[in-house]
Write a structure and sequence with these properties.
Chain lengths: 413, 268
């Protein structure tokens, strides 16, 4: 086929030279493997040193806030999966919790325990993924393979629960759709019993590794003021000396009943963030053990409800829909028209693996949210690169982007 | 007669609402039910005009004057320990009274409290940038400009952030349709090939599941593929598909499920 002429002028897309001051502008991305997605970084360089950094985002913008305004509440749930697709249940959960707070629903205890199990498994999956990809960026291939192996086990468990590996949609407004499958707890226990040894293996490979430490220590230091000012949350903030974990400070679900520590550091560099991710995996394991116990207690006490009982907003259990006329009618209306939450607004923040994941919902009493704002932590963790990168050298860019743990589904939404 | 559709809000609407339906309200409580919020509100009221204040879903909401925003946030950050601006954006009320509602979501980590500061601006009015107070507002305000067209005064780099720089229209306005406008649907074609190529390329196919059985060029006739440009009749025979593997490929064995072992326990 003959080549079609187009209006795009050819240009040297990656490099421009400026003759006056010897400054070089380098385009890092948007198709760079270690940019962790579609990040375009325009770097102004003096020799190898960065003097100005300009992150350019929007390559994965799908307009989720606009979509939300045109979808009924339950319809939007699978869309939230596509934000932080490394730990998608935590996005489902944030949205479900926001709508529940808007309606004023209380979720049954068994559903709460299942949600916590899912959330912490997602946190482990996300942190393992972070460790794998960051180690790969720095050059540690072994750690990548080890961590992905462990993540694979977790994905198998999740797949057994909801049928999906990445985009789970495993949580509903008002509870969870399913009970845990047979063997879930056993598989999880087997995994958790091995996890301490696995984490130790990673640390043996990395902690005293000269290359790892040189690339990580005293690189990408974020001061407390800078982290607060840039809206950093999650491990990014905790590495900069603020022990702020929403699970601890504003507990949701049953996080006030489980015991865990909030690791934090006042160093603020890449290495501090790495240590925090490792410690958080241990804490997640601790929470999961307690959740397993809670789940077994629920089973003993005969608490079988998985969805809240609120006929105006939530469909009745399947057995009622199949046997009772009124439940069927209610279900039909809720599926075709959608629930209509009360008039009002709510902002709910949850601790996703990346940081504070917030949903702001403004409802005008209709089946569609009037305005829904997604507060994704990675958005600001990308923005901070503007102030963080100048002064560093090109190789540091890769390790800094790695430890910020940004996911572009979430940055661009 | 054609059904009336409002032009100033083209978002999805409920297709049926009971005419006697009165939407319930999310309960609001007075600010003095919470000690911390009450003292914070007193402090703010002493310096700035507060038009309305209440507590809704555990968070305080205050309405202020648009020109006070920099002062209020500075006061809250320095005196009241609200050290983080979690989020800020706008709500489009143009259809109702030609205004935008701007909200700032503030977080105090020492008090474990969140306050939402809000105000209304007229359409076309700019807001004061708080980027000097909170660097996070740099990107938030750019996003707000990108999505609503609300500009921020004294912002260092007031450019679009998510949409392309040469985009026209503001996607989150209620007047902007979900599937995009005329400009959006031809954006790539106009930019790469020019407007005159619109007829050749044709509009974008949005329905990915659409199958045109008379299309002989785009592999749409599954099982009935024909060479390009062939005349298509209704009584065509099914195309015989030969896979290379059927006759065997050099060095590649076919999987025999009977002789392979399936590992039940992935943890082993």
């Amino acid at each position: 086929m003959a080549q079609v002429k187009n209006r795009l002028t050819p240009f040297f897309e990656n490099i421009t030279f400026d003759r006056d001051d010897n400054e070089l502008v380098l385009n890092f991305g948007p198709q760079h493997p270690s940019a962790h997605g579609q990040l375009r970084l325009m770097l102004h360089l003096q020799q190898e040193q960065i003097v100005k950094a300009h992150p350019d985002i929007g390559y994965l913008h799908r307009g989720m806030e606009k979509m939300a305004e045109n979808m009924i509440y339950n319809e939007f749930m699978p869309t939230t999966d596509r934000m932080d697709y490394i730990a998608s249940s935590s996005n489902n959960y944030g949205f479900a919790l926001a709508v529940e707070k808007l309606i004023g629903l209380e979720v049954p205890r068994r559903a709460k325990v299942i949600r916590m199990l899912l959330l912490e498994i997602n946190r482990l999956m996300s942190h393992l993924f972070w460790l794998a990809t960051t180690a790969l960026d720095i050059g540690a291939m072994t750690v990548f393979l080890f961590a992905f192996r462990e993540r694979e086990y977790l994905m198998d468990i999740i797949e057994g629960y909801c049928g999906a590996r990445l985009t789970h949609a495993a949580i509903r407004i008002g509870g969870v759709p399913l009970d845990l499958q047979d063997g879930f707890l056993h598989q999880l226990r087997v995994f958790l019993n091995k996890l301490p040894q696995n984490i130790k293996d990673y640390e043996d490979l990395l902690d005293s590794n000269r290359i790892w430490r040189m690339r990580m220590e005293e690189v990408g230091e974020i001061s407390t003021e800078m982290a607060l000012s840039w809206g950093c949350t999650g491990p990014m903030l905790r590495a900069s000396g603020v022990a702020w974990d929403i699970r601890k400070e504003e507990p949701y679900e049953l996080y006030d009943e489980v015991e865990f520590n909030v690791p934090f550091s006042d160093k603020g560099d890449n290495f501090a963030r790495y240590r925090i991710y490792m410690e958080e995996m241990r804490e997640s394991a601790k929470i999961l053990y307690q959740c397993i116990e809670m789940y077994e207690k629920c089973e003993k006490d005969g608490q079988t409800d998985l969805m809240a009982h609120a006929p105006k907003y939530i469909s009745a259990p399947k057995i009622d829909i199949m046997t009772q006329n009124y439940s069927l009618m209610q279900h039909f209306v809720l599926v075709t028209q959608g629930m209509r939450p009360p008039v009002g607004e709510v902002y709910v923040a949850t601790e996703s693996p990346k940081g504070e994941l917030g949903y702001y919902i403004n409802s005008q009493g209709g089946p569609y949210p009037y305005r829904l704002k997604l507060r994704a932590p990675s958005f600001w963790h990308t923005g901070i690169l503007t102030d963080l990168l100048p002064g560093h050298y090109i190789p540091d860019v890769v390790s800094i982007i790695g430890t910020t743990n940004i996911v572009f589904g979430e940055v661009d939404r | 007669m054609r059904a009336y559709k409002p032009k100033d809000d083209v978002q999805a609407k409920a297709y049926y609402t009971d005419r006697f339906y009165v939407a319930p309200q999310v309960p609001k409580s007075a600010v003095d039910t919470d000690e911390v919020f009450a003292s914070d509100l007193e402090a703010i009221k002493a310096k700035f005009e507060v038009k309305d204040a209440y507590i809704q879903v555990e968070q305080m909401v205050i309405y202020i004057n648009p020109h006070d925003i920099y002062g209020v946030l500075e006061f809250m950050r320095d005196e009241l320990e609200y050290t983080q601006l979690s989020e800020m954006s706008a709500i489009d009320w143009l259809a109702k009274d030609n205004t935008f509602e701007i909200f700032y979501q503030m977080l105090s980590m020492s008090k474990r409290k969140r306050i939402r500061v809000k105000y209304f601006i007229q359409n076309g009015q700019a807001v004061d940038s708080v980027e000097k107070l909170f660097r996070s507002a740099d990107w938030s305000e750019r996003e707000m400009y990108d999505m609503f067209g609300i500009e921020a005064n004294n912002h260092p780099f007031m450019k679009r952030i998510l949409m392309p720089y040469d985009w026209q229209g503001f996607p989150l306005l209620k007047t902007y349709p979900l599937e995009g406008d005329e400009f959006a649907s031809w954006y790539e074609v106009d930019k790469i090939y020019g407007k005159e190529a619109r007829d050749i390329i044709g509009p974008e196919l949005r329905d990915t599941a659409r199958v045109d059985r008379y299309d002989s060029e785009r592999f749409a006739r599954l099982g009935f593929e024909v060479p390009k440009g062939t005349e298509i009749t209704d009584d065509m025979e099914k195309t015989v598909q030969d896979y290379q593997e059927e006759n065997g490929v050099f060095l590649i064995k076919k999987l025999d499920k009977g002789s392979s072992k399936v590992i039940d326990d992935p943890q082993r």
